[in-house]
Design brief:
Shape: globular
Strand order of the largest sheet: 1-5-2
Mean pLDDT: 80
Strand content: 25-35%
Distance between the termini: 39 Å
CATH topology: PSTPO5379-like
CATH architecture: 3-Layer(aba) Sandwich
Largest sheet: 3 strands, antiparallel
Number of helices: 3
Structural class: alpha+beta
CATH superfamily: PSTPO5379-like
Number of domains: 1
Radius of gyration: 17 Å
Low-confidence stretches: 135-139, 157-163
């Protein structure tokens, strides 16, 4: 299956291309005006802490949806979404470090996993790109020097202007 223009694809068709292995790569620029999400998948023992972290930090971690323990779909993301197979690549972190990358979570899935869908700049990058094209500049990601105080802390990254 040849993918049509990235921005013209509908999310269902794009997920089918990913699930079948016909697409492997970055998702930036695909599916036009539809929202894209980053995923965090955690054992349920850590889910309530992460939920509170996201709620306390809604700008860097805007929650689009949260799944139920053991469920590999988050209904707000669309029909027939299989989180285990509908992403081109998954980074697996253990003890805060990247341990491996895989194209499917089917063999790693656990009955207590909770899926968090977090909004990302890919959802509005086409607007940033259009504005930056008109201004003759490139849109980019900025690493901020601000750290969050929670246990689940990290450095913030913001979409914006590198000019």
């Amino acid at each position: 299956m040849k993918l049509q223009m990235p921005e013209d694809l509908m999310p269902f068709d794009f997920r089918q291309a990913v699930r079948s292995g016909q697409f492997r790569g970055p998702t930036a620029g695909y599916c036009g005006d539809h929202a894209q999400a980053n995923l965090a998948i955690l054992p349920s023992a850590h889910a309530s802490d992460f939920l509170r972290f996201c709620q306390a930090n809604p700008k860097p971690c805007p929650l689009l949806g949260v799944g139920e323990p053991g469920q590999w779909h988050v209904p707000v993301l669309g029909r027939e979404v299989d989180i285990r197979n509908d992403v081109p690549a998954y980074n697996i972190y253990r003890d805060g470090r990247l341990a491996e990358q895989t194209e499917s979570l089917a063999d790693l899935w656990q009955n207590d996993f909770v899926v968090f869908a977090i909004g990302c700049s890919f959802s509005f990058e086409h607007m940033l790109g259009s504005c930056h094209d008109q201004a003759g500049r490139a849109a980019g990601l900025l690493g901020l020097r601000r750290h969050t105080p929670d246990r689940d802390h990290g450095r913030e990254v913001a979409a914006g202007d590198r000019a």
